[in-house]
Amino acid sequence: MVGVLVSGHASMTSRAETQKPLVVILMGPPGAGKGTHAGPLSGQLGIPHISTGDLFRENIRAETPLGKQAKGFMDKGNLVPDELVLDMLFDRVARVDCKGGYILDGFPRTIPQAKALDIRLADKVQLVVLNFNLPDAAIIERVTGRIACKDCGRPFHKKFDPPKNESICDACGGKLIQRDDDKEEIIRKRLEVYRAQTEPLIHYYAQQKEVLKEIDSRKEKAQVFHDVMEALPPIHAAAVR
Ligand SMILES: [Zn+2]
Asked: Mean pLDDT across the chain, nearest whole number?
């Protein structure tokens, strides 16, 4: 990936910079909107959304060499080393659909992971970290209100998108249920883990110039998406204006 050198041009550096693949890291507590915006963002930018959790499961299911290595650690009750997760990630992003960049979700989660990622990315990409902010009380209201049809999967929200009948699906008449993951005590626990483990990463990225972008998730969904696009480097944001 070599930038075109425009001799004598004042904006040479920034031109070269914007020609690098764009790597967007999605951060923020569970329920703050990462999942909502990942798909549309991928569509707008024309770059894939890579969930490292999914990638991991795919490698294990397909019994790839990396998947087998990972399973070996897990079968012994050990954590999968960060380097192995990175091997899976870089195996994935070597594919042609990631040539213009990619959106990362679920990784890095810790400072050692972020440092290891930085070493592999070096300065070959343009990195943007989007940090979705939402106060805990709002997260709990959002998450604990989620219900979905047991039969057709249609999602509802007790407060923001209520079904006509409290426990029955408008679409098919199926029963509406809450996932165990969305119960209040579970979400409180996940928030606690997030604050302890992942929040230090925000400070890590804040120290890198122009990388960290704060997104206020209290706003309306469409406004949040607009803010996300605005937070991206101009050439990428301009592509969709
Ligand atoms: Zn239904």
From this structure: 89
34 class by beta-carbon count within 10 Å (0-12 exposed, 13-18 middle, 19+ buried): buried
Q: What is the CATH number of domain 20-47+100-135+189-238?
A: 3.40.50.300
Residue 4, phi then psi, degrees to nearest 5 = -75, 130
Which helix (H) or strand (E) segment holds residue 155: the answer is strand 155-157
The domains of the chain are located at 20-47+100-135+189-238
What backbone phi and psi angles, to 5 degrees, belong to 183?
-75, 150
Q: Would you say the pTM of this structure is higher than 0.70?
A: yes
CA distance linking residue 148 with residue 56, whole number of Å: 26
Task: Select from 31, 33, 27 the least CA-distant residue to 204.
Answer: 27
Cα angle vertex 72, ends 68, 74, to 5°?
115
Neighbours of ion ligand 1 (CB under 5 A): 149, 151-152, 154, 169, 171-172, 174
CA-closest candidate to residue 90, choices 70, 69, 116, 111? 116
161 Cα–ligand 1 center, Å: 14
SS3 (DSSP) at 17: helix
Decide: 155 and 148 in contact? Cβ < 8 Å. Answer: yes
Both structure tokens of 108? 């890095």
Share of the chain above pLDDT 70, in %: 90
CA of 176 from ligand 1 middle (Å) equals 8
Q: Is 109 among the catalytic positions?
A: yes
Residues in the chain: 241
Cis peptide upstream of residue 108 (ω within 30 degrees of 0)? yes
